[in-house]
Amino acid sequence: MSYFDSDSECESYYGPPVVTRGAFTFKEGMIYAEFEGPCHPRTDAAELHRLLTYSPPPPVLTKAGTVAKRQPKDTHVDPDAHYYSAQLIHYGLKPLKTKIPAKKRLLAAFGDGKTLQVPKAIIDLEAIMKKEWQTLDSKYKEEQEVQRKIQSKRDEEARLEMIKWEEARLLEKPGPSLITTMGTTKMTAKGNAKPPTNSIQARVDTVLAKRPKPATQAPKMTSAERQKAVNSLSVDQARGLLAVLLEKIPAAEKILDAELFSIKAKSPKIKEKLVDSSVWTGVYDVEAPMIVEDQELRGSVPSTLEIYPSSTSAHLWASFELGVLKGVMRSLHPVPKFLNTEVYFEYRGYEAGEDCMTFSDDNRAILIFLPGGLFEGKINTECFGTFKIYGALKVQGAGGNPIGRKSVTQQKEAVSSWKADFRSINYHNYEIAGTERWGGWGGDTDDDKAFESDTTDGKQKRKKVGNLHKFMKRTKDDLNGKDDSDSDSDKDIEDLDSFGYECEAF
Prior knowledge:
Elements: E1 19-21, E2 24-27, E3 30-33, E4 40-41, H1 45-52, H2 81-90, H3 99-110, H4 120-171, H5 200-208, H6 223-231, H7 235-248, H8 252-266, E5 282-287, H9 295-298, E6 304-309, E7 316-321, E8 325-331, E9 342-351, E10 356-358, E11 364-370, E12 374-381, E13 385-393, H10 408-424, H11 427-437, H12 476-479, H13 490-497
Antiparallel strand pairs: 1-2, 2-3, 3-4, 5-6, 5-13, 6-7, 7-8, 8-9, 9-10, 9-11, 11-12, 12-13
Helix pairs in contact: 2-3, 7-8
C-alpha cells in the first residue's frame, strides 16, 4: 500500500479547502497524516523523542523514608496509538496499529541521537500540496470577502432599523405591560421599584404592551357559536379538547365553553409575517433581575446569550452565560418561522463556584423572540428556581461601532462546538470531574452519543414531550405576587409543592 496516492478521509469540518494525497492532508497551512484514526500534524523530532522516552517521576517519600500515601498527580498524557501511527507516516516509516510497537519503531529510528529526518519524497509532496492549497485558499478567501460584504450590508440595515425603532419608541408613551401571560416582573428582589427605563426588561415590557390583551372571562356561547368555534380548531387543539371532555363528563357543555375560551385566550390573533432566522440570531445582552438581586450588581454582570440554528434548521442551539449559570441550550423543535413564538429548550451547563455540572431533566427554558431584536423568557434552575430573563440583540460595541455578525460557516462551527459541550455534560463525566477535583483519577471521559435528527442519524432517540402547557414551573416572581395579580395565595404554594411536569423525559 502506498501512503502517497491512495484515497483517505480526514475529519470533516466547515471552512477553508482541504488537499488530500493518500494518508496526507494539507489544511490550515499545515500537513497532517492519519492511519485508522484522526488526523495529526507532524511533531518535531525533539518533542517526539521526549514523548517516546518519558518515564514517570519517582514516588514522594515521607521524612521517615517511606512512600507517602498521597502522591502528586502525574500530568503527563501519552497520546493514543493513532497519533504514533501518524508520526510513523510523517517520517516515512511503515505505520503500526498498536501503540507499544509503534513507539518502539519510532524510537529505533532515532538511533543513538535525538534527531529524525523527514524523507525528501515527503518534503517534496508537502510543497506540492501546500501550493495547491494556497491557490484554493485564495479563492476561498475571495468568496469569504464577498459574503462578508453582503453580511456587512445586512448588519448595517439591521442597525439602522434598530435606531429607527428606538427613536420611534422614545416618542411613544409606554403602555401597561402584559407580560402577565408568563408572569410579570415589575419588582426587583429588594423592593417595589420598576426596572430602569433604559434596561432591557423595560424595553421588552414596552413591546409586550402593544400585544392584544386577552379577555378575562369566558363569554356564554350559543350552539351555533360553539359549533363554529369547534370547526375552527386545529387537530392538536381538537385532540386536547376531546381529552378534557372524556375526563370531565358529564359537565361537558360548561367545560367545552371554558376550554374554547382558554385556547383562544392563549393564542391571541396576532398577524405575523414570516421572518428569516438572521433577524433574531446573534449575540444578546441579557438581564436576569431575580437572579442578580443587587440593583447595582445587575449593571455590572456580563450576562449574554448567543443563538444560531443547526445546519439543517432542525433545532436551535444557544450558548449562555448568566453569571451564576452558564451552559448550552438545545431547542425541542425546529427553528420558528415567526416572532412572538414560544421556543422550548433543554439545557446543560455549569453552576458558579466550583463549576459543578448540571444536567437535570428539569433544566428547561422558554424564549420568545420579539420585534426590535428583543426576547423575553424564563429558565428553570436547580439552585435558584425559575426566573425571568430579558435579552437585547447586540448591534453596537462599546465604542458605538457596528458589531459584525458571524458568517454561516462561523455559525456552523459555533453550533458544532456547542453540541460537543452539551454531550460532554453527563453523569459519567460528572463523577470523573468530582474525583479529579480531590486529586484522584476518575478514568476516561465518555460523551453522550448524538441524538436522532439534526445533522446525524444518531444512536439515541428522544421521547416526545407531552403537555407543553406544563413544560415549566411557575417563576418565583409569579408566586410572590409580583405580577400585579392576586397570585400570592396558599393555593399557589400548594400547587407548586405538588406540581408535576406531566411530560415524558427528553
